[in-house]
Amino acid sequence: MPLSDYQEGFLDDLLSGTSSIEDAIAPAFKHRLNIYRNNVNVGLKSYLADVFPAVKALVGDAFFNSFCQRFLTSHPPHSGDLHRYGEPFADALASFPALAEQAFVDDVARLEWAYHRAYYAPDGTPLVMPDDPNHLLTQHASLHPSVALIQSPYPIDELWRQSRPDHKGEFTVRLEDGASSLLVLRTISGVTVQRLEPAALHCLRSIEGGLAFGPAIESAMALEGAEQLTPFLSHCFNQRLFCQPE
Amino acid sequence: MNQAGIGLRAPYVQPLLEHMPALGFLEAHSENYFGDGPARRQLLTLAKHYPISLHGVGLSLGRADGLDPEHLQHLKALVDEVRPVLVSEHLAWSGYRHRHVPDLLPVPYTIEALQVFCDHVERMQEALDRAILVENPSNYLAFQRIDMDEADFLNELARRTGCRILLDVNNLYVSSQNIGLNAHDYLDRLKGDYVGQFHLAGFVEQVRDEDRVLIDSHNQPVAEKVWDLYLECLRRFGRRPTLIEWDSDFPSLDTLVNQADQATRWMREEVADAVV
């Protein structure tokens, strides 16, 4: 059997159970393929459980396990860097009919994915706040590579916090608590999840979209939380959120 | 290098920085340090105090198609920044075309596979601009058809590419028990000049349907039989950088350092003339 056929067949076997390469294995050892099947299955599921602990808690162990089983087949890992595996998990949850009534789950998955990737993101080159505030108004910036801006009709930051295994208290979050806009950012002290007012979110999106600070601030002035924009932007500079424009 | 090292895993970072035990080197899994996160910064901090060895688990040297250029690029950036004393990968594969699994899968030792490994080791050495080491796997099964055995395959790979062999003594012991490979004969035929590093680790025994298999689990102390085989390696080949690997069910740092100390004592006492 050519090496390419053997490898294709082995991956089919491991990820979808649809083919087997038993013919290539010496008869006395065919059953030992189970060791690899088990390693890969357990390894990938425990990785997904590490990346998506809140999703797992929200849907329950049994559901999570069987969903992961499908996911491994429909979306196998593409990279030898396992930490990059899981990006389509949220979309796969969103299109899974059994979860139609729990639409918040895929938004929590989006937050967990952003939180995971922020840890591994590259460092940007931080933008220093200009001494003369007038210079800031014409300044362009990019957002730190770890940044994700996430919006949901549900309070997913609280759902996430209270579903994580390290949460000690009661589960008090209610879906009626309403929408949330979140900033995920890796700072010096670690990955943070911060809630944003509509004005702050709009301003960050405008800067990300290429507007200079002046027009970006201007475009957010009519939105809720606009009066807090100045301290918010200074807080962002302190956290090195803004980087040199690309 | 006549002092053994240990595997660098997340739970040991703080204890290492606090106590700085005497160790020959720290070996890190390369893929855990791709990107610029806090883990990378910690590795760079530790690199100021210890020599670092980078051990890859995801490049898939044995893949029948080409190496992933992006993966190689990340590795190159890491190697350039960390300046490790050793860089190693496995005699195994884990990805082909668009799919990849987190396991080291077995390769049939055929002429075709040897060519694939030679091409990929050369490609990797060219990209990193240095020689690498390639580790013998834990074998759980044997193939219907091979053209040569593992010792010959590794010798030939080293001869043709200039890479060195990372001899995992635990893997050799596990393989001898699992597929009836003769470890002494294997060591007899492996060319000493090609052996560049030793790994030591623990295994667990699994019995299913009357089939006894040793699993290379890296969650136990090094077994007596593996220490014996290590001694045989030291006497045959001389000293080489030796690593104690422990990758899950982590014990205290002291336990790991004690295992490394035992390897260090043996390196110093049992080998009269240093070969390296």
Question: Which helices and strands appear, and what pairs or packs with what?
Answer:
The complex is a heterodimer of chains A (246) and B (276).
Chain A (H helix, E strand, L loop, with lengths): L2 H14 L16 H19 L1 H7 L1 H14 L14 H6 L9 H17 L12 H5 L4 E2 L4 E5 L3 H8 L16 E8 L2 E6 L2 H11 L4 H8 L8 H10 L3 E2 L3
Antiparallel strand pairs in A: 1-5, 2-3, 3-4
Helix pairs in contact in A: 2-4, 3-4, 3-6, 3-8, 6-8, 9-10
Chain B lengths: L4 E3 L5 H7 L6 E4 L8 H10 L4 E4 L13 H14 L3 E5 L2 E4 L2 E7 L5 H18 L4 E3 L14 H12 L2 E5 H11 L3 H7 L5 E6 L3 E5 L2 E5 L8 H14 L4 E3 L8 H18 L6
Helix pairs in contact in B: 4-5, 8-9
Organism (chain A): Saccharospirillum salsuginis
Protein name (chain A): DUF2063 domain-containing protein
Pfam family, one (chain B): MbnB_TglH_ChrH
Notes on the protein architecture:
The complex is a heterodimer of chains A (246) and B (276). Chain A has 246 residues and is mostly helical. Chain A has a single domain, classed as Outer Surface Protein A, domain 3. Helices cover 48% and strands 9% of the residues of chain A. Chain A is built from 11 helices and 5 strands, in the order αααααααββαββαααβ. Chain A has a 3-stranded antiparallel sheet with strand order 2-3-4, sandwiched between helices. A two-stranded antiparallel sheet of chain A has the order 1-5. In chain A, α2 packs across α4 (61-74), α3 (53-59) crosses α8 and α6 (104-120) crosses α8. Chain A starts with a helix and ends with a strand. The mean pLDDT of chain B is 96. Chain B has one domain (5-270): Divalent-metal-dependent TIM barrel enzymes (TIM Barrel, Alpha-Beta Barrel). In chain B, α3 (69-82) links the parallel β3 (52-55) and β4 (86-90). Chain B has an 8-stranded parallel barrel, surrounded by 5 helices. With 276 residues, chain B is of the alpha/beta class. In chain B, 40% of the residues lie in helices and 20% in strands. Chain B has helices spanning 13-19, 38-47, 69-82, 111-128, 150-161, 169-179, 183-189, 224-237, 253-270; strands at 5-7, 26-29, 52-55, 86-90, 93-96, 99-105, 133-135, 164-168, 195-200, 204-208, 211-215, 242-244. In chain B, α8 (224-237) packs parallel to α9. Chains A and B meet through α1 and α2 of A and α3, β5, β6, α4 and β11 of B. Chain A: Residues 6-91 form the Putative DNA-binding domain. Chain A: It holds the Pfam family DUF2063. Chain A: This is DUF2063 domain-containing protein.
